[in-house]
Amino acid sequence: xxxxxxxxxxxxxxxxxxxxxxxxxxxxxxxxxxxxxxxxxxxxxxxxxxxxxxxxxxxxxxxxxxxxxxxxxxxxxxxxxxxxxxxxxxxxxxxxxxxxxxxxxxxxxxxxxxxxxxxxxxxxxxxxxxxxxxxxxxxxxxxxxxxxxxxxxxx
Length: 155
Prior knowledge:
Elements: H1 8-19, H2 25-32, H3 36-48, E1 68-76, H4 81-92, E2 97-102, E3 109-115, H5 118-127, E4 135-142
Antiparallel strand pairs: 1-3, 1-4, 2-3
Helix pairs in contact: 1-2, 2-3
C-alpha cells in the first residue's frame, strides 16, 4: 500500500484523535484550525487510506483482574513458512496473547501475554503455548511495572 502524503493538518488531526478517539468533529476542527466540513473530509480520507485503522477504548488490565504481564520469547525447531504460519495461527487464537511479533535474533517470536496470576500463566504455558507443534524453546520475563506505555504514535 502506498504511503499517503501527510501534511501538517493531517498530522495535527492524528495527534488529536490518538489522544481522544471520541472527540467530536466540531471540537477537532477547532483544535486543528479547519472548518468542520474539510476537517471531516480529511479524517474520512485518513480512514479510507488506512492511516487510521480503528477506534478503541483502552482498558486498564489490573482493573479487570489481569495483573501479570509476561514477555515470552519463543524459538521454533524449524523456520519454514509452514511452521511459522502454524505457530501464528495458533497464538492468534489465544486471548491471553496481546501482541506477537516475528523477530530477528535468538528468538523467532516475542509475545506479550496478560493473565490474572502466575498460576494462570503456568496453565497458559503448559496447556497452550508449549503444545503448539514445533515450539523448541520458551523463555519468559515478567514485568514488574510499566515505565512507559504508549498507544499514541509520533506523527
